[in-house]
Write a structure and sequence with these properties.
743 residues; alpha/beta; Rossmann fold; Immunoglobulin-like; six-stranded mixed β-sheet; five-stranded parallel β-sheet; 28 strands; 28% helix; globular; binds beta-D-glucopyranose
Length: 743
């Protein structure tokens, strides 16, 4: 039996001791500001509750619109923030009502779901995550923020940092996949990109980290379902991304719809106060998700909306999105003493402080420049950045050398329902993005200069989601005359996203039948998959010569895909989520436990399925390149380390193929013996490196004691002595490893 020496880390993990800010209150304790204190004294209770109320306008909605009359609410000071209102014209009109017609002239805060672009659309967040390129991701967040701010906005409901291991859940498209380490680095990059260094810059928005918490773990992958996970899994898998985003300085956090351990998030004091405020030290404001206070009645934890509002305030909510509960219902709770007015004051202080930091009291129209709006949105530089991000997000899943298309004159049949599509390619949370600005794959292929050596025929072939096969015959005739077929299939954009859980995550309609029919013709097939989540691609894999995962790539999709197909850009994306062989394997993720009976093909009583392998179709971190990379063994200059030491491991990587290219070098650890079971692999580092043909580089990775730590049986964050394996390779299947020992 190993002797456990517990080394409590004091500096590193922020949800440990480092977060011992003595908040003690449900809302943030912001430093009192004389201007705000003065304003607070003048405010009636209705006006205070107004600042804590956020409503959608009649322009757009992203849920039930149970409230109307928001313009009168602005006049009477009973609404302090609006969402789904954008453009300089519209926000100016509403801001004028607030600062000219309301008693205290408090400016409005304008929010919107700018998730992967405002008008210049970038790839969906899951697609961006496949780039593993933190610089590009930060830049994309910056540009969407800049366009949003130029359109009169102050605040975006992003980044969504919900980790998810379940591709049935349609909202995986908004996040960065299954891994807490990758997800945390991306969460930080997105917060930095959205907010910049300081609040109040007119090219940045406020970030809103969502959905707190564990929204990505709904039972059975069904949206809004409870997250029934252990505290250990919650803290190790789901919490780190929120913690990282808060640490990166996010000013606001959104609650989630689900319940966690029996308590809906919007009334969950443990989540919102004990963890978010006290452990993580969050000092911004907490907004609910859409009507999620009201929904606590249906969850069955309160008898009516008044009680729901009181529960929310007591838990630590500062702002009610669209429910009208704070505005209409909670005065009773204040009058009968269940809520202290000082608690309301704290929330209002935090909200007003953020408005002040934005500079809105000095100039409520600071973000309302028509000139900036027209110069910024869809600018050439933004389109270039979107193009760059799009090509980095593409993952090459299979290639028998059909790709890239060789340098000779060829006849190409372009087919499939998404081949010349624009509206789906801008993605599911496309804010004010418009399909007409998007470059379809077919357009991109023809626009590229390499198209001069190709001739094209385009036939749509079928729709995404119906049974109509009437065009099959002409597609097959055309296929006979073609040298190569490029087939674009996948999901419509309304098949992934909020409220789009699917039990069968396959390519819908007759699209696979089209692929199979084309296969019978015998010409090489390049299948380009466009979708919002991992799909079951077994048939696509088996019947295509090459497969590209292109998600929904945004405004410049077609140019990016064309560059990859022509070999002008060598694909470097890696999957941020496991792709299963079939739905029965879900949830399937790389960082699973070993079990006491690990997989053994010759042992009936080992952990396995009797119908399919345990392994996924494509593992986490997987993605091919047009070149090949060879790794040397990971090297550590010593084998024995003390508990407090950093472990340094190096690896040599060489480009051994025929193209220059980038590789995502991934480092995983395994703690071989510990007081609680540990995953067979955990990502703890990655570097994206460019290598010319034949070039070699040595990369160095440093693991801190924190990286080797976990929660022990007493839920203390510890590092335990013993052996660790450190793997370095090009995906989570790598067996290229070295063993080190912590003494
Ligand atoms: C979604 C949030 C979104 C909000 C406002 C809700 O339905 O869950 O992610 O920010 O609507 O549009």
């Amino acid at each position: 039996m190993k002797q456990y020496i517990i080394y409590l880390l004091t500096l590193t993990l922020i949800f440990q001791l480092s977060c011992a800010k003595k908040m003690g209150e449900t809302s943030a304790k912001v430093k009192k500001d004389p201007f705000i204190e003065d304003l607070l004294k003048k405010m009636t209770l209705d006006e205070k509750l107004g600042q804590m109320s956020l409503f959608t306008t009649d322009w757009e909605s992203t849920g039930p619109t149970i409230r109307a009359g928001y313009q009168n609410d602005i006049r009477s000071g009973r609404c302090g923030a609006l969402f789904n209102s954008h453009t300089v014209d519209f926000t100016t009109k509403l801001q004028k009502i607030a600062v000219e017609e309301s008693r205290l002239k408090i400016p409005l805060l304008f929010g919107y779901d700018v998730i992967h672009g405002y008008k210049t659309m970038f790839p969906i967040p899951l697609g961006e995550a496949a780039s593993w390129d933190l610089f590009a991701i930060e830049n994309s967040a910056y540009i969407m923020s800049k366009e949003g701010a130029a359109a009169g906005l102050h605040w975006t409901f992003a980044p969504m940092v919900d980790i998810s291991r379940d591709p049935r859940w349609g909202r995986v498209l908004e996040g960065s996949g299954e891994d807490p380490f990758l997800g945390s680095r991306i969460a930080e990059a997105r917060v930095r990109g959205i907010q910049g260094k300081q609040t109040g810059q007119t090219d940045r928005l406020l970030a809103c980290v969502k959905h707190f918490a564990a929204y990505g773990a709904p039972n059975a992958g069904r949206d809004y379902n409870p997250a029934e996970i252990s505290e250990r899994v919650f803290r190790e898998v789901y919490l780190p991304t929120y913690a990282s985003a808060v640490k990166a300085g996010a000013k606001t956090v959104m609650t989630s719809f689900n319940d966690y351990d029996g308590v809906p998030a919007s009334g969950n004091k443990y989540l919102l106060t004990d963890i978010l405020r006290k452990e993580l030290g969050f000092d911004g404001f907490v907004v609910t998700d859409y009507t999620s206070i009201n929904e606590m009645v249906k969850h069955g934890v309160v008898k009516d909306e008044t009680d729901a509002g009181i529960l929310a305030i007591q838990a630590g909510v500062d702002m009610d999105m669209q429910g009208g509960v704070f505005q209409e219902k909670i005065k009773d709770g204040i009058n009968d003493g269940r809520i202290k007015e000082e608690q309301i004051n704290q929330s209002v202080r935090t909200i007003l402080k953020i408005k002040k930091d934005l500079g809105l009291f000095e100039d409520p129209f600071k973000y309302s420049s028509k000139e900036r709006e027209s110069n910024t949105i869809l600018s050439k530089a933004h389109l270039e950045a979107s193009h760059d991000m799009a090509k980095r997000s593409i993952v090459l899943l299979k290639n028998d050398n059909t790709l890239p298309l060789k340098d000779k004159t060829i006849k190409i049949l372009v087919t499939g329902p998404l081949a010349d599509d624009k509206n789906n390619l801008i993605g599911a949370w496309s804010a004010s993005g418009e399909g007409r600005h998007c470059v379809s794959m077919y357009e991109g292929l023809r626009a590229h200069e390499n198209s001069k050596r190709c001739t094209f025929e385009y036939i749509k072939g079928c729709n995404v989601d119906d049974k109509d096969k009437s065009q099959f015959e002409i597609v097959l005739e055309a296929a006979k005359k073609a040298d190569v077929i490029i087939l674009a299939i996948g999901e419509n954009k309304d098949m992934s996203g909020e409220a789009t859980s699917r039990t069968m995550i396959r390519i819908p309609g007759v699209q696979e039948e089209l692929l199979l029919a084309l296969k019978a013709i015998g010409k090489p097939i390049i299948t380009v998959v466009m979708n919002g989540r991992p799909l079951v691609l077994d048939k696509v894999h088996d019947h295509s010569n090459a497969v590209l995962e292109t998600w929904w790539l945004g405004t410049q999709a077609g140019h990016a895909i064309a560059e990859v197909i022509y070999g002008v850009y060598n694909p470097s994306g890696k999957l941020p989520m496991t792709f299963p062989r079939n739905e029965g394997q879900i949830p399937i993720f790389y960082n699973e436990k070993n079990t006491g009976r690990p997989f053994n093909p010759n042992d009936k009583y080992s952990s396995k399925y009797i119908d399919i392998p345990n392994t996924p179709l494509y593992p986490f971190g997987y993605g091919l390149s047009y070149t090949s990379f060879t790794f040397g063994p990971p090297l550590s200059n010593k084998k024995l380390y003390s508990l407090k030491e950093n472990v340094v491991v190096t690896v040599e990587i060489q480009n051994t193929g025929n193209y220059p290219g980038e590789e995502v070098v991934q480092l995983y650890i395994r703690d071989l013996v510990s007081s609680v079971t540990r995953p067979v692999k955990e990502l703890k580092g990655f570097q994206k490196v460019f290598l010319k043909k034949g070039e070699k580089k040595t990369l160095s990775f440093t693991l801190t004691p924190n990286d080797l730590s976990f929660y022990n049986q007493n839920m203390e964050w510890v590092i335990e002595p013993g052996d660790f394996e450190i793997f370095i390779g090009g995906d989570s299947d790598t067996q290229n490893k070295v063993k080190i020992t912590i003494l």
